[in-house]
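Q: Structure tokens for this one, please.
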Amino acid sequence: MYIHQQNIHTLHEIKLLLMIINKLIYSCMQIIKANKMEPKYTIEPNEPAEPGNNSKIVLEDPKEAMKMINLETVRNLEKNALEATITLLCHRAQSLKNDSVKLSKSQETLPQAIQTLQIDNDAKQKVEAVLSNVIEEQQKTMEAKVAPVKQKKSGLMELQKTSKKQKSLNFGVVGFGQAGGRLADTFFNLGYSAISITSIDELELHQEHATQLVSEKLSASQANIICLSLGGISNARGAEILVNILSDFKKPVVVLGILPFDGASVFIKQNVLRTLSVLNKYVASKKISNLMIVDNAKLNFILKGGTNELEFYNLANKMVVDVIDSFNTLTSEKSSIESMDVSDWAKIITNGNGITVYGKLTLDNFEEETSVAEGIIENLYNNLFIREFDIRNAKRIGVVFAANKDVWEKMPKTAIEYAMHVINDPPSDDKIVSRGLYVVDDPEPVVKVYSIFSGLTFPTIRIDKIKKEIEEIKK
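A: Here is the predicted structure, written as tokens:
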């Protein structure tokens, strides 16, 4: 569902205006408090209610707003200036709430509207000064609180950057469709540059704009990750377009594809086969440097299925992105024990030469020599984010062990060696294994094991199973 751009602006302006009113009154209260004066009424700064719900929006009536302030006790703000400001803002907010009133019928800006007020010039200047300062402050507040998405052309969206920790590699992220968009949003919350494309129609209609958006917003990236569901109706076509757009920038293209739940319809499973067929073609031609696959059914198993749908997707998205970000963040640091070489991490993630799978394991038994190894034997496969992959055939393996200082002091030195022996089984001259041991600021007395296996062959077992399921349902 799309919301018209004009309506978005209208809703945002309502919120902004009401926040300004609350800010003005709260500022007055602060002055009262500073002068140790008692106001007529006690009021607290409020967030305005969301337009469209049943909650009452505060301070709609200018007279009621004025009653909340004992203006005689307010210093440095003249009554007529403040009254004019609140009256103007309340009137403006009230008119904007009316669905029949369009912005096109009221093009005046607040500063222009001020000039029409029947107050003297000195008062107008005070109003303008108050508005200028408060609006600037509230716009910054809104930018931080409103979903950090800037509408571009019809569904092409740029996710605004946030402050970020140091990373080994600067990934750019492109989310396609609903599932891909959620993953892109999770990446950007961790400091990565990201854009989101909502549908195939928008992508096909605005390929040039999508290319421009990638060029402008992901220009600093060293590699780009496409996030998408493998079962989406148009994701095979979307993947094809995006891979071709991103490969033209001569940077590694990584695809993060999500398999659907077991109970998915025949239609969705057929889409999975089509999308995997397209991606396999690009892996073979090297247009895709690495294809990472995650299974929603496996994530549901790891989360024990004890969540509602909204909670599941929030937790699952964080799990999927957390492993990649943990590798990318920890490998940028110099470990006091043993660091993983950044170039090894870069080769694993951007030069997988096939399929890549990964996962995270948390162990609370680590004080015996074989404890960590035994935990890996029992739980490694169960905690990978995919099923039916033989990781013994991986060409590159990366493993990071992270624990706090107390845990490392209690863990026998040989524990990691035994653990690595298990992970590297069977050993091979063609297999490259990289590891890192990091002391982290974690209050839990646990060892977190992040593992990634690349260079795997296509999941023929899983594909054959999907084909069989389709045939059985058709019967």
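A few notes: The chain has three domains: 5-145, 150-184+194-206+222-288, 290-475. Residues 1-13, 31-81, 92-114, 141-154 have pLDDT under 50 and may be disordered.
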